[in-house]
Amino acid sequence: MSAVGEIPVVTIDGPSGSGKGTLARRIAAQLGFHLLDSGAIYRLTALAAARAGVALDAPAVVRVAETLDAQFLPDGSILLAGECVDGVLRTEQTGAMASQIAARPEVRAALFDRQKAFAQAPGLVADGRDMGTVVFPDAPAKIFLDASAEIRAERRYNQLIGNGFDAKLPALIAEIRERDQRDRTRAVAPLVPAADALVMDSSALSIETVEAQVMAFILTRGLNKAH
Ligand code: C5P
Prior knowledge:
This protein is an alpha/beta fold. It has a single domain (9-210), classed as P-loop containing nucleotide triphosphate hydrolases (Rossmann fold, 3-Layer(aba) Sandwich), CATH 3.40.50.300. It has helices at residues 20-31, 38-51, 60-66, 86-89, 92-102, 105-116, 131-135, 149-162, 169-185, 207-220; strands at residues 9-13, 34-37, 70-72, 78-80, 83-84, 124-128, 141-146, 198-201. Helix 2 (38-51) crosses helix 5 (92-102), helix 3 (60-66) runs parallel beside helix 6 (105-116) and helix 8 crosses helix 9. The longest helix has 17 residues, at 169-185. It is globular and about 50 Å long. The mean pLDDT is 93. Cytidine-5'-monophosphate binds next to helix 2, helix 5 and helix 9.
């Protein structure tokens, strides 16, 4: 089996709201693999910078990235400097701040090893924007999950309302378009499918259908369930 340093890695990249986070969780559970939500690392860095009073375009953000005190607990909750930040981490504002710092090459470089370190036995499912192109380019199974901006905004709207946040659909569509544009056109690690990725559009598909097709693809790539 081909693998990253002997550890099998599945990468799932795509724009925000494509369903890649949900898909990654379900695939990791099916395979019995660890999970890396790389977007959370960018979100945590942006949040840590804001809390330290560091401007998002200041050189000091790199130091914030290097010294990030983050913990990913087995129950899925995330701590920043010991404090649970699950709620604020998922807001559109934090996502937009993450996208700004993520456009800076030196910030990406500072977070590179931290992401690589998630590749632990028996295997890893990593979701983000550049998992298959930059962080785990040798991964044996790469997926790129897309969906229209309107569908992604609608899913995000339902998620936010469901979690008790206030949201307006037209504003969400505009924000998603703006963040996509920045992520797809940035000079370093832009959001593009890896040459050997399975590209899927989830606009008209249920999560169950996507999951079944992706699992079938993964098994053809020589990866096996850990349990
Ligand atoms: O996936 P999520 O929406 O949590 O990511 C937040 C932001 O972090 C993205 O808009 C993107 O700019 C950045 N990001 C990135 N590379 C990754 C994961 C996220 O640049 N691998």
